[in-house]
Structure formats: C-alpha cells, structure tokens
Amino acid sequence: MSKVSELHHTGLIGRQPEPDEASIRAKISHMEEGFATVWLITPAAIWLILFLVIPLVSIVIFSFWENTAQGLKPAFSLEFYGEYFYTKGFFDPEADRFLLPSVFIRTLGATIYFTLVTMALCLAVGYPIAYFLAMQVQAFKWQLALFLLCMVPFWTSYLIRAVAWLPMLGRRGLINQALLGMGIVDKPVSFLFYSEFGYTLALVQIYVVLGIGPMFFSLAKIDKAILEAATDMGATPFQIFREIIGPMSLPGVAIGMIFIFVMIMGEFATAVVVYGGKTSTAGTVILNYYGIANYPFAAVNALMLMLAMVIGIIVILRVVDIRKEL
Amino acid sequence: MTEIKSSRKTGGAFSKISRRKFMGTAAGVAAAGSITGFPNIVQAADPIRTIGLGVSVINEIQSKASKDLGFSIRGQALGYGALFGKTLNQNDQYEVSECYFDMFDVMVPSKVFQPIDTKRIKDWDKVSNLTKTGMLTPGSQIGQGDAPFRKLWVDASGNPTKGPSRYISAVPGWHNADSLGYNPDDTGRPIDSWAELFSSDFKGRVALINVPQIGAMDAAMGVEALGLIKFGDKGNMTRKEIDFLVDFLTKKKKEGHFRAFWETFGQSVNLMVSGEVVLQSMWSPAVTAVNAEGVPCIYASPKEGMRGWHGALAISAKASGKKLDQAYDYVNWWLDGWAGAFVARQGYYMSTTANTKKSLPADEWDFWYEGKPAAKELPDPFGSPLIAKGAVRDGGSYEQRFKKIAVWNSIMSENDYLVKRWTEFLTA
User: Fold this and answer.
1) Domain, as residue range, for B295
2) Hey, of B257, B420, B422, B425, which one would you mutate to test binding to chain A, going by the most A CBs within 10 A of its CB?
3) pLDDT, tens digit, for every residue of B391-415?
4) What is the pTM of this model?
5) A129 within domain boundaries
6) ipTM for the complex?
C-alpha cells in the first residue's frame, strides 16, 4: 500500500503521471484481498440503505398514494403530480391564470433564483478570500490560522448566525442607530431586515464558508513553481490567472458551488428567521403539507425539489469535469 | 408549529419549563414545524402509550399519573403536524391521543378513535358546558368553526349525532383563547378590534401567524371587522371567501403592510421585544414573555371576541382489554384536578374547573381563573417563581374570555385549497 501511495504522489501537482504497470498490479492484488474490503464497506452500505435508499424509495411510493378523509390509502394515483404541475385556467386565454405556472413551480423557480443569486455572490466574495489565503499569505501557519478564522462562525449554531443579524440590521439595530445618530435618516429604515436584501445577505454570510474551503484547497494545491515559470516566460498577472490559476482552481469552485447550491435549495429556516416568512421556498411548501399530514403531496414536492437539485448538480459537473481536473 | 398550543412561557428565569420551552422553540425555528419530541422516560413493562403536544405531554404529568394509578404511562410529545399524522395513520401506536377538537373533522369519520362511554367518566357531570353546549355560561356567544360541542357527541358506533348522547368522541381537556398583542407605547392607542390588524397607521409594523389554518382565521376576523365581507363561517370558508381573503392579504403584502410572518412562539416574542412589530397575532403566554423582557405589551380583548382552541383525550379504536381500562383510568385521572392545576400554572384552563379549583391554592385560582392581581409571588408548574406579586393576567377572567369566543381553531373542508392559496400569498 505504501508503495502505491508513494507512486501516486510523486508527480507534479496538477495532472498526475500515468502509474506504471507494477503499481497497477500492486493495486489490483490489494483489491483482491476482498474480505477486508467487504467489511470496510458494509457499515457505510447498511447506513446508506437504511437512512438514504429506503426513505427515498418510500418517498417515491408515498407520492403515488391517495390522501383520503380516512387517512393515507395505498394506490397508484397521479393526482398530486397533476396538482403540482397543472393550474386551472392554464390553457384558457380568458382566465387570469392563462399560462401562469402553478404556485409550486413558481415557488421552486423563486428558490432557484435566490440560490443562483446567492451562489454568484458567494463566488464573488469567497473566491478573493480563498485566493488571498492561498496565494498572498506565505506562511502555512498563517494560512491555517486565517482559514480557521473563516470557520469561526461554524462554532455557533446555524440559528444563532441567522438570528444575530437582528441586532445589526433591525429597526433598533446598530446600522439604524448609526444612521439616526448621524442624522442621515429621521426614522429607522426597514428595508435592511425582513427583506430580500437582508435575506440575501444572511444567506451569503451563512454559506460562503462552504465555498471558501474547497476553493482554498484547490488554489493551495497549485504548484508555485508553475507560476514562477509563467512569470519568467513573461506572462502578465492576468494571463497567469486566465491560463493557470483560473482553470486549476475550477474543481474547487465547482465543489464549493455544489455545496452551496444543495444547501440553499433545501433552505427554509433562513426565510423564516431573516425574511420573516415573507417568501415561500420549496422547503417551506414541503413542511406546510407535512404539517397537515398530506404526505403524498409533500412527497411530490420533495421529489421535484430533488429533481431540480440533481439537474443543477449535473449542469455544474458538465461545466467542470471534477474527476479530470482532480 | 410545535408551539401552536404549547404557548406556555414564563417570566421565570431558567426553570425547567423555560429550558424546555427554549429547546422547543429553537427546534421549532430550526425545523419550522417538524418533530420536536421529548419522549417520556417512564419505562416499565408494557406501559400504555399516550401522544400529544408539549402542552400536555410533560414528564411530570405522566409520571404523576403513573404513580397515582399504579401502572406505567409512556408519553411521546410531538409537533402539531406529527401528532396529526400519527393520530390519523397509526392508531395502533397509542392508546390515548391528547389531541385537539379542530382535528376531529378528519379523525371522527375515519374512526381512528373509539367512542367514549360517558358512564365510565367519573367526573362527566363536572365537565363544563363550554364543550357540551358551546356556552360556558347561559347567554354566552357560541363561536364559529370547530367548536368542541359540534365535534363532541357521537353514537355507540362513533358516528356524529346532532345533540347530546351517552357517547362522546373524546374527553374535553385543556384550552385557551388567543387574540392580538400590541405595544401600547408604539400604537399610541388601545387596540380593541381585529380591524386594527390592517390599519394603515401600523403599516410595515404588523405580523401575522404563518400557519395557514390559524393565520387565515385571524386575518378573516380583521377583514370582517373592517366590514369588507361577512363570512358564512370563518371556521369553514368557501373557496370564494378564501379567494377574497387571500387577494386582500396579497394586496396588503404588496403594499408592505406586513413586517413578518411568525411560526413559533419564540419568534412572536422576538418580533415584539426587538421593536420590529407593534401589533400582531399572539398567544397570551407570549405576551407574558414579552413583558418579562421589560417591553410593554398588552393582550387585546377585541370586541369581536377571541379565537379559541380546545384539547381533548381520545382513546384509540385499537385499544382493548386491560389497556382500554387503563386508558379510561388515565383519562379520568386528567379530570381529577391535579393535572388541571398543573396546566393552570402554564396559563391553560381545564374542562373540570371545579376540580381544578379544589387542587389550586386560592391565590393561584384568583390569579389564573378570576383575573385578579396576584396576592403574592406565584410559581410555575415546577415550583420556580413565575408571576410577580400584584401582576394581573391580561384578557380578564376565565368567564370573560370564554363567554365570547368568535371562532374556534378549525380545519376547513377546503383546507388543501387554503394551504395552496396561502402559499401563493407568501410567494407573491
């Protein structure tokens, strides 16, 4: 094993050299010791089957059930799928809902919109931070210290991080007090909190760290010698970024974006705490129907959300081939 | 949504209850309505199982019952949605469901409970008329919606009957009435009508509860008080009425009338304490909690009446033999007084008021039920100080509150439509 790993890490950072025949054979012979492998995989497999596969399958099954006055009834009904996609009057040019997608599709659309906006902002804010940590801070000690500093918010619960915006942005918050004190406004401004502005700000603050981590690691992996070589060859900083740093950090960007995408698509609590519940997300819709024990429709909503997330991840992976880049 | 009915909160510092409350609230925010369970840890061979909200399923209550009755009772506290689902879909998983009359439009026709024989309820004659006739005292206003007396009476096979019968769907228990809370310094005037919810004076400083079934009723009280529409039954609106209401709310939302929509007890307290909101739908224990933070807050007694809710003890259709007898024992125990006194200290009323009075010291009875100033410092259910000497409970006496219930918490026939339109309203 030690020989294998040695061989794998002798190459330059970036693309690895093709492993030679001996190392492949070493790897294969190791894998043939199947007994240990099975035992190593079993706990994870059981865990995944119990807590991922079975629940997922039951969500799919539930989504076809009927919700009658006598409770849930096993059936194969497409009623709730129809409910999800179709609004009465959609095909009727006279109706005021003509060609207006159903509220559930619109809610999912709004969720995707907020997710994309937040992802863009997280990239804009997170990438420079990751770049600074990886490229500008020379000592490893300081890199680590500053990186941990970025993680400090994670030491408190998610809820605290969301709620903590109130003393900052609220009507009696710090910013309003400053504005009032300086005489810029004569009564507190309210667009800061329980607003789209506050919501976006909080989402970026809560999730940007998930992007910084992967971006930092892929930036830090870039061999400085390549950059020096490029400089020696007369490349401008912009060229270096475009030709080397940018492409080589793409996998980190993609992984970070996937993290953020998945988290915000399933988001519902921030909308309640920071936006004051003034919007619906796909997550809150699921909760609403769970709350009235309409499990089939909650399941349909959950599946549609999952479908949107899978499509989003596929799109991201299409843009960046993580396997190839790593 | 856990706290819909678990709206107990307290001025006291870190008593057991406020800790549990805090955890419940935090979980409620995080899960915004999913399960917050505190399974009771009374374990013994073959206990009977009871499920409910954190209002009635509290370690102390089930432990005391186990001790008094000599058999083991295992309680499971759930969120509202989970309680609803489990009561409906898994009646082999409990002997007793400590549920709410607004669920009964679903539970009674689906026969998940067995009819309870009032002859086996020892204190049946002591249960007040609030749930038997809808009138706590002669001449009280009968509320709209799923009033307990409309859901109570059934025949021997569990089908609803028009009037009194030997059999009932469930035994009436703890209850309360909710209305509006406001900060008098900010409103500048007393609030005595639900119509104020939409007054342009408070534009951008108003909050509504974000539970479609309840929020819609609070809003309907306001719209009706404004004279814009007369609802046939606010507890069972037609599609047309729902459309009218949601269109009105959407217009108001687009004007920026609402500051927020809250989902948990803790959020409603925060909105008031932080000064974000001056007027909102509120539960009475939340008003106490705001006052405990030093922020003035008054629990309004709107002239149109309050919105009531009522808990009940139902026995699963699957319970039989010894388990059934024990379930009856447990239900009877609830009416006996000790439990009534316990929930009184959280601000809830009990259907057997006379028994509660016997179990409560006079000072506490006067404060909680009569609306009189506290003669001395009063404790919460766990013995920690809760009410300062001289404090007065908002909303007046028990009788004042309950002789004028405008509407009871309800699940409408058009519930699915309501939830859909409510989602549209929030997305608008």
Assistant:
1) 177-305+403-427
2) B420
3) 888 778 999 889 889 999 999 999 8
4) 0.80
5) yes
6) 0.77
